[in-house]
Amino acid sequence: MFKRLWVSLLLLCSTSAAIAEPIPEPGSIAPAFALFDQNGREITLEGLRGQWVVLYFYPKNDTPGCTEEACNFRDDIAQLMAQGATVLGVSIAETASNAQFAAKYHLPFSLLADRDGAVAKRYGAYADWMVVGFAKRYTFLIDPQGKIAKTYLKVDTSKHSAEIIADLKTLNPVRKP
User: What is the annotated signal peptide range for this record (predicted)?
Assistant: First the structure.
């Protein structure tokens, strides 16, 4: 009985993972979104047209890897802005949780509340463990025309911000630091 239940659960979980949306490829149009940040402002991808967007998905506020990644973006924000980039963090969290996380670490960029995971799903960055869903640690660099310029699916939180800055300098060579 227990063995059959276990096999059924595994099949159900694998079926759920199999229907995940594909990760957008570089060169494709970035999926549109409209989400609220930690300050209650609605942020849309369309509203950011004309600038580079660093759209990073992260699993959970105030955990070691997520904190390291966010603080590195915070510490490098001047360099990112010098390259014409806006940083947006996205998690499957409430706006209030994002506000506490941003305040605690003095994060100078928007943390977007993707409460139902709809945006993470459109970017192929949603993990569903049946009981709980969370955003995978994926980043998408979106160009000023709204196309995916680069995807980061294996993120080292200690080096990620610097990696994006280097890529922006390569992809956006007319900008001077």
Answer: 1-20
